[in-house]
């Protein structure tokens, strides 16, 4: 994070706004009008940034702050002198610009690697180039500013191979700016160059060239492979990239006065503009439309509390691919303001309905309190919008069944945020159990008590831990992942008996301590113990199979592999105390555990290519059925069968809501970084 701690999107746009106007105020307006978040200052009110004094830099910073625009990099001209010119005065001036960079709050200074005298071989000057670049790079690096080299025709670093030599020689002390147009102007192949330099690129310079006549054209309209390069950056990395637009388009001031059939106008070709604002806009529109092609899926986030914010953070940290967040909705205006601080140009709505009706989104992620998941999803389906809902699917299965039916009728994509299914240990457990290689399940034990929460957590939201607002406690909030994994790996039980202690460890009206006993169709049994009151808690998941025992604890998976089958051995062994031999094996996994961003990326993949989801939305009803059955059993004081009696559950839940006398103390907070709360 380079801009005062603010987050950035995967592609964050910057521009040389001096191409719109020499006046700084007009530059700032041009940026905002074209949805550009950052500036790479070069000429400010007629003065080059490299000549700006420290005092002038302070005045500029005030104007930028007022406009809410941050500096991506200093658009300096350092390194644009001949290699045989005197370096010392150049270096002295550079030192001042390092101070200017610090005042303007940027970590980068753009620079070049010196003009080579005409007709001479650039490689003959390699040592002197390296000496000078090293002097500048080391000086600024020690002061927390990174020199970033831009390729340019006529300088040492004009072709990708020599830029690579510089990058390799200077290592972390030199950044790399990739300018496709300048490579094309040197006859280099931009795609080959990109492959050579991909891992060194600090930020992208957005300029394109039509090689047939050498004209500079808007990004994507030339031969610079801008779209392919951005697509590769989007999908191959989890990093954020600044894209700095340098329009360099042709402006012909009399253009608008020419007749459309005027020969002059036609001869000029289509990329000529009547004034600088128009050419600047054309360059910005072009990069926006390239990004729209590279990241075609438009997402809306509904509910920007803890989890919704966390999804936005993952997006602005570059974790999502082929998608953009175009809109957010929340009933709380403060949350919309917070979202805009992370994504300045996102559209905001006060209700889910308005967002869905806006047409801004192809898909929504629903991250509101659970009761609202089904009605919002159903409305989205009715309007042709795809849905990725947070867990749990809803609060009661009757409501979720209706949502599933609406999803089916719509034919749209429907996913659920069961991010823990991406964890390699759980995927491996499922694979081993479902393969049947080790026989049937005999017993399952999951002690999952490492969901410790304090009273302050429960006080942090009015809806939390109430029958009316949340519809339950640990079973509805923390355990939906575990209940889902339990059924995903072991299948659905047929009968449940449970004791749910309400408000045992906290001042809440819902359950915070639960023991579930489950029976399976094959006679196997299971016990699931959970609580938000234990500290330290335990997360130990054991599955006893006929041919061995799987134990998952502390994110490590072990298997006791038996040399036979217990069912067989028990019947046939001649000694009463004899045991079936076996050995402990550390189970190897693929090590992947990406969580939420993988669920989102797979959902995007489903929309674009029809590939598999992490979890189909319809499957949300399974874990919820176990949860509803556990509540019902505890309320009735007897075992209940699955499928659960939906109407009875609904009636009893309404009774709980009606009879509630609990008064909540609320102290609303939003936790931005949720990673420590996701459980293991
Ligand atoms: N997958 C996970 O790891 C994970 C982790 C935490 C929470 N969650 C789930 O995310 C959901 C939200 O939980 P949270 O902790 O972020 O809650 P929260 O209270 O922090 O946020 C909910 C937000 O939704 C807004 N909201 C409420 N009703 C709304 C409506 N009708 N329309 C639009 N906005 C509305 C609220 O103003 C609030 O900003 C829950 O269902 C929870 O189970 C999932």
Strand content: 15-25%
> Which of globular, elongated, flat, extended, rod-shaped describes the shape?
elongated
Task: Report the helical percentage.
Answer: 25-40%
Name of the CATH homologous superfamily of the largest domain: Divalent-metal-dependent TIM barrel enzymes
How is the largest sheet built, in terms of strand order?
28-27-26-25-21-24-23-22-29
Class based on secondary structure composition and strand pairing? alpha/beta
By CATH, the architecture of the largest domain is named Alpha-Beta Barrel
CATH fold name of the largest domain: TIM Barrel
What does the main sheet amount to? 9 strands, mixed
The CATH class label of the largest domain is Alpha Beta
Unreliable runs: 1-8
> Which ions, cofactors or small ligands are bound in this entry?
nicotinamide-adenine-dinucleotide
Note the main attributes of this structure.
8-stranded parallel sheet, TIM Barrel, binds nicotinamide-adenine-dinucleotide, alpha/beta, Dihydrodipicolinate Reductase, domain 2, 9-stranded mixed sheet, 680 residues
């Amino acid at each position: 994070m380079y801009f005062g701690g603010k987050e950035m999107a995967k592609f964050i746009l910057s521009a040389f706004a001096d191409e719109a106007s020499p006046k700084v105020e007009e530059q700032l307006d041009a940026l905002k009008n074209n949805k550009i978040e950052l500036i790479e200052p070069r000429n400010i009110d007629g003065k080059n940034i490299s000549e700006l004094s420290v005092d002038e830099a302070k005045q500029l910073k005030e104007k930028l702050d007022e406009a809410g625009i941050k500096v991506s990099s200093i658009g300096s001209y350092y390194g644009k002198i001949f290699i045989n010119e005197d370096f010392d005065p150049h270096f002295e001036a550079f030192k001042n610009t390092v101070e200017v960079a610090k005042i303007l709050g940027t970590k980068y200074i753009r620079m070049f690697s010196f003009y080579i005298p005409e007709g001479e071989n650039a490689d003959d000057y390699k040592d002197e180039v390296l000496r000078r670049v090293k002097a500048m790079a080391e000086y600024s690096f020690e002061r927390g500013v990174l020199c970033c080299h831009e390729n340019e025709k006529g300088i040492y670093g004009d072709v990708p191979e020599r830029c690579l030599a510089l990058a390799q020689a200077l290592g972390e002390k030199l950044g790399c700016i990739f300018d496709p147009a300048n490579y094309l102007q040197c006859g280099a192949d931009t795609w080959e160059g990109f492959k050579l330099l991909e891992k060194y690129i600090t930020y992208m310079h957005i300029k394109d060239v039509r090689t047939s006549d050498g004209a500079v054209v808007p990004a994507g309209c030339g031969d610079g492979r801008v779209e392919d390069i951005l697509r590769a950056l989007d999908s191959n990395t989890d990093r954020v990239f600044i894209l700095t637009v340098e329009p360099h388009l042709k402006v012909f001031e009399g253009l608008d006065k020419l007749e459309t059939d005027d020969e002059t106008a036609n001869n000029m070709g289509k990329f000529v503009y009547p004034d600088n604002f128009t050419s600047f806009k054309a360059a910005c529109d072009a990069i926006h439309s390239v990004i729209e092609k590279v990241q075609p899926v438009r997402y809306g986030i509904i509910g920007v509390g803890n989890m919704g914010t966390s999804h936005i953070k993952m997006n602005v940290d570059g974790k999502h691919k082929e998608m953009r967040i175009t809109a957010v909705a929340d009933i709380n205006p403060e949350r919309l303001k917070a979202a805009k601080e992370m994504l300045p140009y996102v559209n905001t709505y006060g209700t889910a309905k308005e967002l869905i009706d806006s047409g801004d989104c192809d898909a929504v992620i629903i991250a509101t309190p659970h009761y609202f998941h089904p009605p919002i999803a159903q409305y989205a389906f009715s309007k042709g919008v795809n849905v990725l809902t947070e867990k749990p699917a809803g609060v009661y299965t009757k409501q979720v069944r209706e949502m599933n039916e609406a999803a089916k009728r719509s034919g749209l994509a429907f996913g659920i945020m069961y991010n823990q299914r991406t964890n390699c240990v759980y995927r491996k457990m499922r694979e081993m159990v479902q393969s049947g290689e080790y026989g049937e399940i005999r017993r399952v034990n999951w002690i999952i008590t490492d969901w410790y929460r304090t009273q302050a957590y429960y006080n942090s939201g009015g809806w939390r831990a109430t029958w009316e607002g949340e519809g339950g406690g640990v079973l509805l909030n923390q355990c939906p992942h575990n209940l889902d994994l339990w059924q995903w790996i072991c299948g659905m039980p047929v009968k449940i008996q449970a004791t749910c202690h309400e408000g045992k460890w906290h001042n809440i009206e819902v359950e915070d301590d639960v023991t579930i006993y489950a029976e399976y169709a094959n006679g196997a049994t299971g016990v699931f113990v959970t609580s938000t009151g234990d500290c330290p808690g335990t997360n130990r998941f054991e599955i006893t199979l006929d041919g061995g025992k799987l134990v998952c604890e502390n994110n490590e998976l072990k298997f006791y592999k038996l040399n036979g089958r217990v069912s067989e051995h028990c019947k046939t062994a001649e000694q009463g105390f004899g045991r079936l031999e076996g050995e402990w094996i550390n189970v190897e996994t693929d090590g992947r555990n990406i969580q939420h961003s993988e669920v989102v990326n797979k959902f995007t993949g489903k929309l674009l290519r029809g590939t598999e989801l992490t979890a189909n939305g319809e499957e949300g009803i399974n874990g919820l059925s176990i949860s509803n059955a556990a509540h019902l059993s505890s309320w009735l004081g007897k075992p209940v069968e699955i499928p659960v009696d939906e109407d009875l559950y609904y009636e009893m839940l309404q009774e709980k809501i009606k009879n509630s006398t609990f008064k909540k103390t609320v102290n609303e907070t939003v936790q931005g970084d949720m990673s420590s709360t996701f459980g293991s």
